[in-house]
Specification:
Blueprint (H helix, E strand, L loop, with lengths): L8 E2 L4 H14 L3 E2 L8 H11 L5 H21 L4 E5 L5 H9 L5 E6 L2 H14 L8 E2 L17 E5 L9 H14 L4 E7 L4 H7 L6 H17 L8 E4 L2 E2 L4 E8 L3 E5 L2 E5 L4 E8 L3 H10 L2 E8 L5 E8 L1
N,N-dimethyl-L-histidine binds next to strand 13.
């Protein structure tokens, strides 16, 4: 047992219950949809890690390079003795760069929806950072939640990398930033945001040659089969991810390749040939459009870093 590692604490209801409701509700809608947060069971989280390594998916390596290049400056802006709270922690790889640069961090609090995955990755981190207090929380940060105070509370600094903010519609993204601001009790937020760019490059990032994004997308159906006893035929759906240039977003769908019926919990759902099931949007921002949204959410944008090709941006926002 690692002494610096607190027990996994669940702070919102289990996502498994809501997955059933979400799929039943989403399949009854027109157009059909399933929320993208359900991609991230253990299998989906591992597929997402593979996406991050793909040559076409420039986001991760560009953001990591930005973090490495500016870690000293970021650490100085965060200040010393902070509790770093990561929203949607995933593989915990990027935070290592911050932890290595941070001035005497009080604790690291990763929050993730996938408890199984979080408990695996957090154990490895605890072994590598034996002096750091680690407090893993399982929860859904897309819902209002309370982050419990530490026994000796300190200033918080939020970390929200990977342009996950782009997976929310702009209004929901602003509401989320507002909630994060309140969770941070006056602390700042470091957020990674993918930028508007050449549509061909964006299209390639979500339609990789190795087909990993297609597997990631279809894992939603595989998950419904595994967890809910649905009978989706994965070969009867195609991954489809066009860039909607007018709305500045990638839209991701699973398109039914034939007329078919899917059965789940005793209910039958008809799919027409060519009917889409919407699974994700990934909004892209300009530096200015993101800063405007952050201001409307009650933050003051203090610093922004971007790469030479202006593919990706990292913003340090302070609470007003
Ligand atoms: C997590 N999120 C920011 C990714 C994105 O790029 O929107 C999820 C993803 N979907 C397909 N590829 C990656």
């Amino acid at each position: 047992m690692d002494t610096n590692l607190a027990r996994l604490q669940r702070i919102t209801p289990t996502e498994a219950d809501s997955f059933a409701d979400t799929v039943l509700d989403g399949l009854a809608r027109s157009p059909k949809e399933i929320a993208c947060k359900y991609f991230y069971d253990e299998a989906g989280s591992r597929l997402f890690d593979q996406i991050c390594e793909l040559p076409e998916y420039y986001q991760t390596r560009t953001e990591v390079a930005l973090l490495k290049r500016h870690a000293g400056e970021i650490a100085a802006l965060m200040g010393s003795g902070v509790e770093i709270v990561e929203f949607g922690a995933g593989s915990l790889r990027k935070v290592r760069i911050l932890l290595d640069a941070a001035h005497n961090p009080r604790a690291y609090t990763p929050l993730d929806i996938s408890g199984d995955y979080l408990s695996d990755v957090v154990r490895v981190l605890a072994a590598d950072y034996p002096a750091l207090t680690l407090r893993p929380l399982v929860g859904d940060f897309t819902r209002p939640l309370e982050i419990p105070a530490l026994s000796t509370p300190s200033r918080r600094a939020g970390f929200f990398p990977g342009s996950t903010i782009g997976n929310f519609k702009p209004d929901a993204a602003m509401a989320l930033l507002r909630r994060m601001r309140s969770n941070l009790n006056g602390g700042g937020l470091l957020v990674g945001v993918d930028l508007v760019k050449d549509p061909v490059r964006l299209h390639a990032a979500y339609n990789d040659a190795a087909g990993v994004t297609a597997l990631f997308n279809k894992n939603l159906l595989a998950r419904a089969n595994r967890e809910l006893g649905a009978d989706f035929d994965l070969d009867a759906f195609a991954h489809y991810a066009p860039y909607n240039a007018a709305a500045h977003r990638i839209e991701m769908y699973l398109v039914s390749l034939k007329r078919q019926t899917v059965t789940l919990a005793g209910r039958h759902f008809e799919f027409a040939q060519g009917e889409p099931l919407h699974t994700e949007d990934s909004h892209k921002y300009t530096i200015e459009s993101f800063r405007e949204m952050a201001c409307r959410a009650g933050f003051s944008p203090r610093a922004v870093w971007t790469d030479e090709d202006r593919l990706f941006s990292m913003h340090w926002l302070e609470s007003r």
